[in-house]
Amino acid sequence: MPTEIERKFLVKNDHWKATADQGTAYRQGYLTRVTGDNAGKSSVRVRIEGDCAKLNIKSATLGIFRQEYEYEIPVAEAEEMLDTLTIDSIVEKTRYHVPVGRHTWEVDVFAGDNAGLVVAEVELAAEDEVFEKPDWAGDEVSEEAKYFNVCLAQHPYKDW
């Protein structure tokens, strides 16, 4: 069973930019809900990342360990789904990859309705895996649902 184990942190300064890549623009929306009315067992996301698109299904459990399935789809179909099938708002961000020790961190700089929010994630092989936390990573928010992209679509940062 494909899984995802990741830890999320708020970003407290710009020091990560010194070793980051050029970043990739992301635009994503959700076809299902995992919180509130009509919540399901999974989130179904359509994402355009740079010049490719993916359909992603994750278990509705919000935490550091989740089931995850991901499939590449044609960009034109992803654009059509984003324009016609998504619920709530579209999540826009630029994702940067930042090497730290043995791991590559992903720093998401949000735009649109979530502008001003910057979150870093590190993907792990096991829940108890040891990793180096950089000085720019602040408070951990791995267990705080409001920081999950699926929740940001439903309740954007601008409304907090």
Rounded to an integer, what's the Rg over CA atoms? Answer: 15 Å
Distance between the termini: 35 Å
Beta-strand portion reads over 45%
What is the string of helix and strand elements? EEEEEHEEEEH
Gross morphology is globular
Secondary-structure-based class equals mainly beta
Question: Helicity level, as a percent range?
Answer: 10-25%
Largest sheet report: 8 strands, antiparallel, barrel
Mean pLDDT: 93
Strand order of the largest sheet: 1-5-4-3-2-6-7-8
Count of discrete alpha- or pi-helical segments spanning 4 or more residues = 2
As residue ranges, the low-confidence spans are none
The count of DSSP E runs of length 2 or more, i.e. the number of strands, is 9
Structural description of this entry:
With 160 residues, the protein is mainly beta. 10% of the residues lie in helices and 46% in strands. The chain contains 2 helices and 9 strands. The mean pLDDT is 93.
Short recap of the structure:
This protein has 160 residues and is mainly β. The chain has helices at residues 75-84, 149-154, and strands at residues 3-11, 24-30, 42-49, 52-59, 65-73, 87-100, 103-111, 118-123, 137-140.
